[in-house]
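For the sake of transparency, this paper describes our internal protein records without simplification. The record that follows is passed on verbatim for readers who wish to inspect the format:
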Amino acid sequence: MSEQLNNQDLQDMSDVDVEEETSTIERCLTFESGDLVLYISTNYVIEIINNHTITTLPMMPSYIKGIINLRGQILPVVDIQQLMGKCDPDCPEKTCIIVLDIDSVSLGILVDSVRQVIDIDLNNVRPIPLKRQQKLLNGMVTMEDGSVFMSIDCQALATPQ
């Protein structure tokens, strides 16, 4: 009987180890904004919409592009590239809005294009060097092909600037 318990205990311990290993892997949506490739956890992503009409609002900061009516819900739309102070007047027209829900705050972010959903090992995410640190970016990861993806800080995005 005690041998059975020991085997069961070993099985339970191995299950815990597997759970700890897989908990560092997060599904993330990758997208482009300007010259950056960014990612955000799919836990925050509600949907991706294209060619939606944005209604501009007077007396708003330049990074607030306006609002959209998404099935009766009014959402602010933020241009993250402008929010980071990186927008070039010659930058291409943004084509996608990623709708997010961050701690019950719904908003859209305007991006150039959406790439794909990938798995990112959070153990491989490194801090951004201080000289390049941005207020909306909280980490970076180097992919196997050598490309670098930057992580969006969702809490900073959802709080008023």
Remarks:
- The longest strand covers residues 25-33.
